[in-house]
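Teaching soon. Got one?

===
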Amino acid sequence: MMLEESRVVENIEESLQLFNAQILHKLGFPLSEKRTLDCIIKKDNDIVFMKISKKACTKHFVFKELKKLTEFLKINAIVIADRINDREVEEGVLHIRDRIGIVQPKTVKDFVKGDKVYIYEFKGMYYVKIDGKKLRELRIRKGYGLHELANAVGVSVKALQKYEEGAIDMSIEKAYRFIEIFNNEFEQVLKEVDIFRDRIVENIDKRREVMNEIRGNLEKIVLVDKLVKQGVEAEFFEYIPSDVILSIGKKKVFISIIDSSMDDTTALSKSYENKHVSQVLNGVAVNIVKDGVPGSIIREVEGYGIVYRYNDIINNIKNFRKEIEGEKTL
């Protein structure tokens, strides 16, 4: 991480503490700018992944991996950035890409100080959240019938009913039309956007699409493919300490693969980080060692999770599945 981004991280951390958001873990692996996330934070009872970058490039494989991670674990993420692709991140706006929210550093600092965010952007359109009950009360108090108000603002009666039912959010263009009629009183109808929680999630299965990119090494791809064929939900990752994550019911298993090309420091750092990520996410840490890994390293990583031999798993995947499902205590 570059020095400038490190300073942003420090400022954001201070802001989060003021907001009573707990930093559960700061990731230190991998040691490169290609790290998928920087922090795991907790706000109230919600876990949120946080990434800080100068630019959020939605086509970049690191952003795609963050998206895959949030989808697989069903945990929201927030990216603090100055730009999205070739456009600036707008101040006071939450930009949404599935479970990923993108905001300016200043927006976060202002938000934790008490400033409210009312606008979010999704697929180039801008929206506000509204309190349908308050909108209906305002309409009635001002003496408007459904048809009359719908005609005045240029929406269908059905759309107005959906606004009042709280079934849909309102485009910023439509909100301005309501403001023209109700002036400042319309502000009481607007609801605050929560930059940590409010997301739009598209239900699209992207696992095979990502698998086809074959970015990962062959060993983890083979492992995931065999587990999937056994009916286990599994995904592989490149830029977090966990090479593979499994989901079996409510249980999550975080797997770090240690190979013979790693020196002691890298192997220990990876297994240590994998252990801590699994802990904060209430999962189980597993280290899979490949042939050629020295016994000294194997003994060290045993302190950071259960150890399996890669070939033992591949040759007896059914037994491994039984163990991770709990028939044999991990």
About this structure: The mean pLDDT is 88. The two ends are 35 Å apart (CA to CA). Residues 264-280 form the longest helix (17 residues). The first strand starts at residue 21 and ends at 26.
